[in-house]
Design a protein that fits this description.
The protein is α/β, with parallel strands linked by helices. The chain folds into 2 domains: 234 residues, Type I PLP-dependent aspartate aminotransferase-like (Major domain) (Aspartate Aminotransferase, domain 2, 3-Layer(aba) Sandwich); 128 residues, Alpha-Beta Complex (Aspartate Aminotransferase, domain 1). Strands 1-9-8-5-4-2-3-12 form an 8-stranded mixed β-sheet, sandwiched between helices. Helix 4 links the parallel strand 2 and strand 3. Helix 2 crosses helix 9 and helix 3 runs parallel beside helix 4. It is globular and about 75 Å long.
Length: 377
């Protein structure tokens, strides 16, 4: 069976993890954590980057730093993972789901203003598949209505919009380094700050509500509990695992892109025949080959397609059940306007195997199996 995903492993992970143990500094903000911070600050141009225990933790920090309060409304797509919503539900906010675009499957920027009320506090955008939302239009709406923009860039490490790294365009950016992501530390994430305005607050929030970071910089003679916070620091052992991949950042990206391009070229003829639809990458977007998906005709055909692939040794998955139709979504939010594309597109989409060092022969087997399915219908 060809796996849908195998976590990235570049070769030095175990050595660096052992080094972290020998450094006798395995808790948060050790030497490897600092290396990761510096790498992403340089790579993205962010003013500050902080590793977190997960992408969910990064989103929770963004919600806290945005001062989301009970009764506030947050606009977000329903076509996303529940972490995007959980971060705001935890603050007592009401979720307002906005329909997606059928091309990129990102939140439809043209439907935002109709969803805004006097209680709207923030817009949480999700860069699906590492392809940017229409950020110019979204930021224009946000500025007009004095709203905070939080980028859920969990899938978008290494992606950009008009030359600027995703995660640095809004007020806060959130990465994920889960084992399914391009670069992994098992469980982990990062919060990106485009400016230093919220640096002190972010450090306090991340350090259990203490000013411990200022103490280690010599800015205070002792540290104490000063505000609400939690334990959002990952172990330096986790950061060591991630650092091994960041050292090979471009190689990992190029390897994944080779698989993405091979799929795209192979399936273009099927798309021209109208048998399926392929991912759309707007010209202003540079993506990171996080995933390759196909859109089938409908739910029935997708189910048959996934079963066919499995029977022929290929694991493929769908993505996502829309949040607004889930029990929690019904409890904590509502859909703004008409659900034109969210459910329809979610029922057609299927993701193909794509990971670092996917063997070429496995990739060709996936391609040939997909083509075989369409020769039979």
């Amino acid at each position: 069976m060809i796996d849908f995903n195998i976590p990235p492993f570049t070769g030095n992970e175990l050595q660096y993890m052992a080094d972290a143990v020998h450094n006798r500094k395995i808790c948060g903000d050790g030497p490897f954590t600092k290396k990761c911070h510096a790498f992403f600050e340089k790579q993205t141009g962010a003013a500050a980057v902080y590793l977190t225990t997960s992408g969910t933790s990064a989103l929770e920090m963004a919600a806290i730093l945005s001062d989301i309060k009970p009764g506030d409304e947050v606009l977000l797509p329903s076509f996303t993972f529940c972490s995007t919503a959980d971060a705001f539900v935890a603050r007592g906010a009401r979720l307002v789901f906005v329909d997606i675009r059928p091309d990129t499957l990102n939140i439809d920027e043209t439907k935002l203003e109709d969803a805004i009320t006097e209680r709207t506090r923030a817009i949480a955008v999700v860069h699906y598949a590492g392809v940017s939302c229409a950020m110019d239009e979204i930021l224009t709406v946000a500025r007009k209505h004095h709203l905070i923009v939080i980028e859920d860039a969990a899938q978008a490490v290494g992606s950009s919009y008009k030359g600027k790294a995703l995660g640095t365009l809004g007020d806060f950016g959130c990465y994920s380094f889960h084992e399914t992501k391009n670069y992994s530390m098992g469980e982990g994430g990062a919060l990106l700050l485009p400016t230093l305005d919220k640096r002190d607050e972010a450090e306090i929030c991340r350090e259990k509500g203490t000013d411990r970071s200022r103490f280690f910089r010599g800015q205070v003679d002792k540290y104490t509990w000063v505000d609400y916070g939690s334990s959002y620091l990952p172990s330096d052992i986790n950061a060591a695992y991630l650092w091994a991949q960041l050292e090979m950042f471009e190689e990992v990206r190029a390897d994944r892109m080779a698989s993405w391009n091979a799929y795209d070229e192979a399936f273009r003829p099927l798309a021209r025949e109208g048998l399926l639809e392929l991912p759309v990458i707007p010209p202003e977007c540079l993506h990171n080959a996080h995933m390759y998906y196909l859109k089938l005709r409908d739910l029935k055909e997708r189910s048959a397609f996934i079963s066919f692939l499995k029977e022929h040794g290929v694991m493929a998955v769908f993505h996502y059940i829309p949040l607004h139709s889930s029990p929690a979504g019904l409890k904590f939010g509502s859909f703004s306007g008409e659900d034109v594309y969210t459910t329809k597109e979610s029922e057609r989409l299927v993701r193909l195997p794509l990971y670092y060092r996917l063997p070429e022969e496995d990739r060709e087997h996936v391609i040939n199996t997909v083509k075989s399915f369409f020769r039979l219908i």
